[in-house]
Design goal:
Chain lengths: 444, 444
């Protein structure tokens, strides 16, 4: 069986490895335009900040490592054509153009950074962060910069702006929407995070898009905002999200949904022997039971398990997603899962919400930190979302809530579940239990 | 409605508070032989070690605080008789003897420390740790001591021996069984913890009970073991467990089970208008569906919610328990939930187990620590137990596993659940997922 995988990100490389585990004999070829594979893009901000000492540290495997398990990785190679009737893929690299056959084709083409339409976006010093090479360029440019503007206050934007602040730059985070992290946090929770960023000397501009960038000698120098204000900027990072790359999928004849490639629960596209996963496909939202986009590496990794089983003739269904996420900026950890209350409302679900402030340890134990928790339920008390911010112990609580939501638990049911306790690590009544008890009272 | 509660521990005081929340008018009287109520006994070791500066810090509320919400707390008062036909309780204190009526009686009498039968147990310098007063005595005695032996390597024993070590004493932990924490950990996991304690200069004696204590001028000086060896001991702590206090329950005519008072899921005893909770009752084990004893403060607190609802005429059922626990000694956090594999075997369940070593953060992120996880499944793959040891992020993972076990999940099902990821706080495939994936392979 000849498997050709287009794309060397989390989805593509995990698929290659998972197929190899299930089938010793498959001929597996990965084609990627990038220079590096099997690195952790989520780690780029932490290399920039200096927490991780080098970009080389976040590369987990080289093409040579894959060669050892008989997986061919063609780097710096661009797939230019797919013919799903002849079952061929054509690619170009330094050696020229070549067309190869496939039995099974996997599209793991990911997404392209969205470049907002604005004057000056082509100036030197304006960056996107797609891969390690971009990371290295930003690192280099930052060395001679005094000020930076990051536009787009999603996870990557916040992590990057914090990293540049830690390098000593004067930094501004600019977001078109009236709050940061609009996809995962409600505005009251986002405000807590914004307060922390401001306390850390990050200038936060909300509700104002950048209208144009102005340069000197071809290098960016100033950013102008919708309200007419202007900020010095020796560098500008566009963290305004990614758009699924669909060109090859369209060429292959795959059905495309509202945003991305349509796949079924086996990760099959509408075209026989063509599969897809990761940032270029639509997933099903567990709560809305409607299609969504999940831009998480963890989703791609989990999809790759199902895809590898499907291709090797084994049963597996990929479950709908909740988009559980966590991040850490400076001292603060924040995470979320499920729907925000505003997103619930947009989808005609009336949210019943409660926000509590608890502690990460027994109140008399040294260094107990405040923990803000927001719980979102539907009108029957079923938990549909949770957001947490604290200096410690956020990630695993998000995992507990993800499992609770996956299992369809109500706030009443979760308030009766056991939680482990010891003074140095929790409160006698866990913050999550306090939160679900409080929201439960709204149903009396 | 006159409610009389016997016992001022976690069970008794939480019941009083929870009844007050549900019924503004109930006359509530708590009778306790102790001087303090509403303190956290789990925190005593951390006061001893100096982590928490004073015993006063761990007292959350005084009898006067309860008076403010119209709850009468009679301290230093011993209940000497219960008459469940006349519905009266008789108690004695400095003011003499008094008999009062009740409409509802709650027995929250807890347990008494078990004193192993050995010569020299009455010497000065031999302590049990029941309450704050005991804690203060131990703290005082330790100031003039050079060496200490703690017998009984359950949670309290380990936390106390570590605290005395931190005070600079030469310490020995002695356990009759061939491993430490036999109730919660399998021997392979216990060995990891034992290794850490030894590295921290704690002498650990396993499989050898203390046979006698020897003194000088009435003060303990030496401990002798079954193998004839002898260790200097200026103080000895008996941490050999507690036995439920059942005297009043028997006087009231309550049915007693194998170990403790029998209650139904509403926390009712066999005698009308007599209720019980905490260390003096039997709970149902979720997996074995048989009675067990749960000596956890968290169990008592959860039982108090059901009991308060029952007494005030509201519906609530107390669920079977899994005994989820966590502790922290020095740098190391350890936790467990459900059955150990050895306990499963004793109960005719053939355990399918796997133990993995993962990391607490992405492997390239600074200060990623090893995390040891053991998963125990039954022969159908249903998860029935989990044990975790690491320097961070154990407690909440135990909570996630508690929820998974409560929901009856198999290792196959849990391996498909979403987990949140960011390099500073987890691995891209969560340690729990790695563990359940590994154990799943044993079913192929």
């Amino acid at each position: 069986m000849k498997v050709v995988i287009v794309g060397g990100g989390a989805g593509g490389m995990s698929t290659a490895s998972n197929i190899r585990r299930l089938d010793k004999d498959a001929e597996i070829t990965v084609i990627t335009r990038d220079e590096n594979v099997a690195y952790s893009p989520c780690a780029i901000p932490y290399v920039l900040s200096g927490k991780i000492s080098s970009f080389d540290d976040i590369i987990m495997k080289t093409p040579e490592d894959y060669k050892e398990v008989n997986i061919d990785v063609l780097i710096k190679s661009e797939v230019t054509a797919v013919d799903s009737s002849k079952k061929t893929v054509t690619y170009e690299n330094a050696d020229g153009e070549k067309t190869i056959d496939y039995d099974k084709l996997v599209l793991a083409t990911g997404g392209n950074p969205f470049v907002p339409p604005m004057e000056g976006v082509d100036l030197e010093g304006v960056f996107q962060i797609r891969n390690i090479e971009d990371g290295r360029k930003v690192q280099q440019w930052a060395k001679t910069s005094k000020s930076a503007v990051v536009t787009g206050a999603g996870l990557i934007g916040i992590e990057i702006v914090f990293a540049l602040k830690e390098l000593g730059l004067n930094v501004t985070l600019s977001e078109m929407m009236p709050q940061i992290v609009p996809r995962s946090l409600d505005s009251d929770m986002a405000d807590i995070l914004t307060g922390y960023l401001k306390m850390e000397n990050i200038h936060v501009m909300l509700g104002e898009p950048i209208t144009k960038l102005e340069g000197e000698d071809g290098k960016v120098k100033k950013a102008y905002f919708g309200d007419g204000s202007c900020i010095d900027a020796d560098m500008v990072i566009l963290a305004t999200g990614v758009r699924p790359e669909l060109e090859l999928a369209k060429m292959a004849g795959c059905d495309i949904g509202r945003w991305a490639i349509l796949v079924n629960e086996k990760m099959e596209t509408s075209v026989e022997d063509v599969y897809a996963l990761g940032d270029c496909v639509e997933s099903q939202d567990l709560i809305l039971q409607a299609n969504t986009i999940s831009h998480l590496g963890t989703t791609a990794v989990r999809e790759s398990k199902t895809l590898a089983r499907t291709i090797t003739g084994k049963k597996s269904n990929f479950n709908p997603v909740l988009n559980a996420m966590v991040s850490k900026v400076g001292k603060l950890e924040f995470g979320a899962v499920g729907l925000t209350s505003s997103f619930a409302q947009q989808n005609n679900i009336k949210p019943i919400v409660e926000k509590v402030e608890a502690l990460t340890r027994a109140r008399y134990y040294p260094n107990a930190k405040p923990m803000d928790i927001k719980i979102i339920c539907d009108c029957n008390g079923r938990i549909i979302g949770c957001q947490i911010i604290a200096e410690e112990r956020v990630a695993e609580r998000i995992d507990t809530m993800t499992l609770a939501i996956t299992q369809g638990l109500s706030c009443f049911e979760l308030s009766n579940v056991e939680f482990a306790y010891a003074p140095p690590v929790s409160m006698v009544t866990d913050p999550l239990v306090l939160a679900v008890e409080e929201v439960s009272k709204k149903f009396n």
